[in-house]
């Protein structure tokens, strides 16, 4: 089971433990996998270099786009794929979120609030 919940009072994973994922030659310490540093790129040869905003975010309160939309831009089931979208389309979506023209189906979720901070 992926992300099997730890039993109560279980020790936290060792942050220095080196982790991998199936199908990737990349390995990294568990401590490198956190929202503040952007998404882990398990398949760096599978996509062009990420822009800084996608890879690392845009400063305080602006989470890396790749954290939700993945480093390759394909997204996950719960969010949109961005790969192949024209730059101006993406800019327009961010402007529409900020102005209120575009809404989210779940306003309590953090990611739509993150997108409104991009600017």
CATH superfamily: Cytochrome c-like domain
Instruction: Specify the overall morphology.
Output: globular
Amount of beta strand: under 5%
Instruction: Give the count of helical stretches.
Output: 4
Looking at the structure, the CATH topology is: Cytochrome Bc1 Complex, Chain D, domain 2
Radius of gyration over all CA atoms, rounded: 16 Å
Which runs of at least 5 residues are low in confidence (pLDDT < 50)?
A: none
Helix vs. strand class: mainly alpha
Estimate percent helicity: 25-40%
**Neighbour order of strands in the largest sheet:** 1-2
DSSP strand tally: 2
Top CATH class: Mainly Alpha
Query: What would the average pLDDT be, to the nearest integer?
Result: 84
Biggest beta sheet attributes? 2 strands, antiparallel
Describe the structure.
The chain is mostly helical. Helix content is 25%, strand content 3%. The protein has helices at 52-56, 65-69, 87-99, 110-116; strands at 18-19, 28-29. It has a two-stranded antiparallel ribbon with strand order 1-2. The protein is globular and about 45 Å long. The termini are far apart.
Can I get a quick summary?
This protein is mainly alpha-helical.
Furnish the topology, listing elements before pairings:
Blueprint: E1 18-19, E2 28-29, H1 52-56, H2 65-69, H3 87-99, H4 110-116
Antiparallel strand pairs: 1-2
């Amino acid at each position: 089971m992926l992300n099997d919940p730890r039993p109560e009072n279980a020790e936290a994973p060792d942050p220095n433990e080196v982790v991998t994922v199936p199908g990737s030659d990349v390995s990294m310490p568990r401590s490198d996998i956190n929202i503040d540093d952007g998404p882990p790129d398990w398949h760096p040869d599978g996509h062009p270099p990420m822009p800084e905003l996608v890879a690392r975010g845009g400063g305080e309160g602006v989470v890396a786009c790749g954290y939700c939309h993945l480093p390759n831009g394909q997204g996950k089931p719960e969010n949109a794929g961005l790969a192949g979208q024209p730059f101006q389309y993406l800019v327009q979506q961010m402007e529409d979120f900020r102005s209120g023209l575009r809404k989210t189906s779940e306003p309590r979720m953090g990611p739509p609030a993150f997108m409104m901070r991009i600017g």
